[in-house]
Amino acid sequence: MKRWPKLIAFLLLSVVVALGQDEKQQQKPTLGPQPGPATEGPQTAVTVNRVRLLRVKRIYVERIDNQLSDKLLEALAKTGRFKVVAERGQADGVIRGTCFDSRRLKILHSEIYLSDRSSGDSIWQDNIRQPINPPAVSVAVSQTAEIAIKHLAASIMKADRP
Q1: What is the DSSP letter of 10?
Q2: By residue range, what is the domain housing residue 156?
Q3: Average pLDDT rounded to a whole number, residues 106-132
Q4: Is residue 16 part of a domain?
């Protein structure tokens, strides 16, 4: 008869331990909130000079490989925030960069810079990688331009906050 209380105590202790282990398994560690859609990844834009960024009203776009400059011009025109100019001398800021497609790695790597026209100092920059094949390079270039302009707009909004 003395065995029953020990057996009951053992069973109760087993149940408590099992419940505690379930709680630990349910509370798995996380890395915090995840970024937006997987296609965009984390925000990669960096504002170097927020005061100058807010002063840029007219932009000149230099030629960039894979027709990224054309796509950036289209995306800038849609925003309505900037006046795109045809001559460098009329601009407050200049967008320049590179757009390299590696078919072997299936990646489109673009670096885009906004710099001051007169001094050449960097104001804002972005580094974007997009998968290619699929989609086609032209589609990835269009997506890159849209993402870059979205990042620029977000950087301007952030710079405008006190």
Answers
A1: H
A2: 46-160
A3: 94
A4: no
